[in-house]
Predict the 3D structure of the following.
Amino acid sequence: MEGAYDPEAIEPRWQETWVEEGTYAYGNGDADTQYTIDTPPPTVSGNLHMGHLYQFTLQDFVARFHRMHDDAVYFPFGYDDNGIASERLTERELGINHGDFSRREFQEKCRDVCEDYERGFTEDVQSLAVSVDWNNTYKTIQPRVQRISQLSFLDLYEQGREYRQRAPTIWCPDCETAISQVEQEDQRKHTSFNDIAFEIVEYGDGSTPEGDAGPGETGDAFTISTTRPELLPACVSVFVHPDDDENQHLVGGTARVPLFGQEVPIIEDDRVDLETGSGIVMCCTFGDQTDIEWYQAYDLDLRIAIDESGTMTDLADEYEGLSTAEAREAIIEDLDEAGYLLESRDHEHAVQVHERCEVEVEYLVTEQWYVEILDRTDEYLEAGRQMDWYPEKMFSRYEHWIDGLEWDWCISRQRDSGIPFPVWYCADCGEVILADRGRLPVEPIEDEPSVEACPECGCQAFEPETDVFDTWATSSLTPLINAGWDWDSETEEYTMEREQLYPFTLRPQGHDIISFWLFHTVVKCYEHTGEVPFENVMINGMVLDENREAMSKSKGNVIPPREVLAEFPVDAARYWAAGTSIGDDFPYREGDL
Ligand SMILES: [Zn+2]
Ligand SMILES: [Zn+2]
């Protein structure tokens, strides 16, 4: 051996050799001992960060350990490059807005931007010395994967596990699309809590107030406390708690909404929160999930005051065209002027935001596709129990997520860069026309359905479904993508090209996406194959910054692995990753290397 060890020369040489010679290629499909890993495909939404370095290195330890034990190790790599995350990356990168292009044009721009980033991902991951099999890679937007994703939709539809419904949906006014429960997250925000006088039109016993001395002076008014006065035009009723003795005389009566004048019923319900505000609350379509429950339970009116872009509608009278924030300010001012505003105080509370853009969500009535999940939560919980969890304690996160489920899984998105639904509708009767499985993937906007006429009414005109799938509807299929799940038109059966891979031995992933990726993978694979897709799950923690804060683009504290590896040999980084406790979050400190 000549001289000292020189990582700068030796590391790249071996990295290239491994890739060129296919050193870690999965070879022996017949081996008795298969060790198959469902590698997490990084979302193409920006550059790789230290968390990626950490988790790929952990996965590599597992892969190398089992290779040394003569297992046939399958350690593939994927790129998750469809959906809102890569659309937003493209918009940011090119300084454009998706609305200014045709779908085809915008999709091409997304492809170009994603390909650049994917090249960077590949180089970065290869420089980590992880023993990935570069002969087995996939992109979630490639035609083979689109076919699998559309097959999945058709299979679930035919099993009766999917439905399309016009109903209140969780909506992001910034991304202008429906989203699912898992994509909304709590955020603490400062706002004002406003006490507003509602005039009583009629008491519960049918009597009417005497005199007309104005609100708050004669006792002919009651107080509603709200953080969202811009919802007053959408107010459809007022609720009183059954234990609220002081206000029982109102139940069954009618109240008038200030400024907007609509008269609404006063109803009794035990979902009223007696602890907050005056104990009397308004129900608007829709301010929150309780409003939706009340709307459905009491068959209330639907008053739509906010549109898809978060703009006030004509129902808001003079506030039409304002954003919700502008309307809030203007309405508070006008309430004050008219004597309806009794008090306004500073208030910190939790609001629901879209996790991708951190904009507050709205609840709008729209038509969407859903996968039914609420009726089978017990089965999905049991499927979770059948897997071995490393560390064991992480199972409780899976359990909590399932316990807190309140919505079926909304899978349709009003976006451009995603996989299309293989669906048309009869222009006359609305009948759902499915694509032939042999033809997948299809793009209904460009392709014609296989039938000449609607089987229900004979009409020969069809409308394409223009929505695309939720990105998790496809990434939840990675075990089936890896195993080559398909449909054989000859035998009319679902097939698996590499059956020996499935179920997978290991699903490694971060704890931040147990509710996103793991749960939905279990749902999909379980419904398609009847089997739990993984024997083991290994859940890694997050790499934090020096001050134990999460690394994020908005905080500007993200450390790219490239920077670290420019200064240190990769062995130092691998040694650092090896010294952590699986599942725990921990800070990255340069000194530790
Ligand atoms: Zn959003
Ligand atoms: Zn028809």
Observations:
- The mean pLDDT is 94.
